[in-house]
Amino acid sequence: MALIVQKFGGSSVADAERVRNVASIVTDAYRKGNDVVVVVSAQGDTTDDLIEKAKEINEKASKREMDMLLSAGEQMSIALLAMAIEKTGCPVVSLLGWQAGVTTDSAYSIARIKKIDTSRLTAELDRHNIVIVAGFQGLNKYDDITTLGRGGSDTSAVALAAALHADRCQIFTDVEGVFTADPRKIPNAIKLKEITYDEMLELATLGAQVLNNRSVEMAKKYNVELEVLSSLTKASGTLVKEVTKMEKMLIRGVTKDTDVARISIIGVPDIPGIAYKIFGKLASQNINVDIILQSVGRDGTKDIAFTVSKANGPAAVELLGGCDFLDGLAMKCDTDVAKVSVVGAGMETHPGTASTMFEALFDRDINIQMISTSEIKISVLIDAKDADDAVAAVHKAFFPEED
Ligand code: ADP
Ligand code: ASP
Ligand code: MG
Question: Cβ neighbours of residue 229 under 8 Å, at least 6 residues apart?
């Protein structure tokens, strides 16, 4: 007998038929003699719909009230799934995040799980109940409901698996695992049998939505092996773990991230301390900076460009616009950009990855505006309109026989 944590995303519980399908996956595992803890997300587009509802009433609603509203989506789906399981005759109980002992820090809308008190969960398992837990939510020190950021149910599942020392953590979704690119956009993308935490973390951070990046960070920290698989087919999925038997693959995936804004400051004085002042100012307001590019100084000035998330673009311009050391300089925020990346631990030992990627972009006449690299990834900033074409071209360059 094992303890299994199973997580089902929004599309897996989108309507009554899908809820019944999930109930049958869960009860199958239970009837085989396992203890089963299930994490569910809000049904289908419920979270987006709730955000729209809030906007109709107050465009600038407080994050506290947004969390109160958005957490309702998961409350609905845990009750509906529990009802479907009741109908099968299996014992079941649904719990909100706080009832399951999930406490978080106070950062409404992007809270981090601090601790899980497992006493209620283990008591319910001891009573042989299937336990359904609302993903994406917890309680902070003020006894307020918090949410963990979009896609946060993955993190709830991993955190519960770690806290309960589960034998398995299965992330069920609407595709059959982690692929070398989004299988909805690149039909010939290849399903990976295995991927390391580090590679998955890069893929998730750079736009592969299939796992939330914080969930991968947590899985690595607590050594929770993840299995990503489909709730709709019985195909085997992808294992996410510390070490993999490296398949002969230079790169593991190509991603696209359109949540990017590029800020350019033209004619910055070419003197020491300017970069420190600019990026120190941004850091003081918790504005995270990604790619940075500085031109060679000429005639005592230089240009500095960097990227932030789209939401932080206006705030960054306003903040820097108010700084005396940048007084009067032209500043531009461009949101029509996208970041396309290749990820793979293999590139560290294989020269030529960058040139393969750049050649694929050149062949499609796509201009690279910025480049950033680490040991296991290469990212380029390009025009947003070219992003899908770029992903297809780069994928084809690395996986030619599949296209
Ligand atoms: P869930 O509702 O189950 O949490 P998500 O919509 O958050 O599911 O994530 C699954 C989606 O991630 C897939 O439908 C797919 O379009 C997208 N995706 C993007 N990149 C990848 C990738 N490399 N591998 C698999 N899926 C990906
Ligand atoms: N329902 C939340 C969202 O749409 C959390 C999740 O799906 O993981 O972001
Ligand atoms: Mg998701």
Answer: 170, 171, 172, 173, 176, 177, 235, 236, 237, 238
Backbone angles phi, psi at 185, to 5 degrees: -100, -35
Tokens 């940075």 belong to 292
Tokens, residue 141:
């020190």
The number of the ligand nearest the C-alpha atom of 14 reads: 1
Provide the β-strand partners of residue 293.
305
DSSP states of 74-108: HHHHHHHHHHHHHHHT--EEEE-TTTTTEEE-S-T
For the record, the structure tokens of 209 come out as 């939505």
Q: Which helix or strand (DSSP H or E) is residue 274 part of?
A: helix 274-284
Q: How far is CA 328 from the centre of its chain?
A: 38
Look-up: residue for tokens 């297809």?
Answer: 392
155 pLDDT band (50/70/90 cuts)? very high
In the reported structure, the alpha carbon of residue 403 is separated from the centroid of ligand 1 by a whole-number distance in angstroms of: 21
pLDDT the model gives residue 248: 66
50 lines ligand 2 (CB under 6 A): no
Please say whether the dihedral angle defined by the alpha carbons of residues 163, 169, 174 and 179, taken in this order, is positive or negative: positive
pLDDT at 1: 83
298 phi-psi bin (left φ>0, alpha ψ -120 to 50, beta other):
beta
